[in-house]
Design a protein that fits this description.
Layout: E1 10-13, H1 19-23, E2 35-40, E3 52-61, E4 64-74, H2 76-92, E5 97-101, H3 106-114, E6 118-122, E7 136-140
Parallel strand pairs: 4-5
Antiparallel strand pairs: 1-2, 2-3, 3-4, 5-7, 6-7
């Protein structure tokens, strides 16, 4: 992945024709409906890998909408920019919170913390309310 992030970058759901390129950068996709995101130079070549990528799953329960950040990849700078753009996108779409395990890329946890979001550690619970082994951290949007 390229370190030069001076160019204007775009966060977008990965288009179908780029899905294989981007998912090869991420751990195996979980079961269920998920969104694969990429941070790209919109003027870049179609076969150029993204600066960063993320995988999210959304769980809706009543009036609460939680987005689970399953994976994130990229350089430290790219992860910070990707997560700032992702939080803005999720807020505009009406999400209430972002949750991730403490074992997610340390740079991702730090980046979410630096965005000034209210943070709470919760017991290990998956997006459908299923139990997981790792505690999670939840940020209110």
């Amino acid at each position: 992945m390229v370190e030069d992030l001076d160019a204007a970058l775009l966060l977008r759901p990965v288009p179908g024709h780029r899905l294989t390129l981007v998912t090869n950068l991420l751990p195996p996709l979980p079961t269920g409906v998920c969104t694969v995101w990429e941070l790209v130079d919109p003027a870049g070549e179609e076969d150029h890998p993204p600066e960063g990528a993320a995988l999210t799953r959304t769980a809706a329960g009543g009036e609460h909408r939680d987005v689970r950040l399953e994976a994130v990849v990229g350089t430290e700078t790219a992860v910070v920019r990707l997560l700032a753009a992702l939080v803005a996108r999720l807020r505009s779409a009406g999400a209430d919170s972002v949750t991730c395990t403490a074992t997610l890329v340390p740079g991702a946890v730090d980046a979410l913390s630096r965005l000034g979001l209210e943070r709470a550690t919760v017991s290990g619970e998956g997006p459908e309310g299923t139990s997981t082994t790792a505690p999670s951290t939840c940020w209110q949007l």
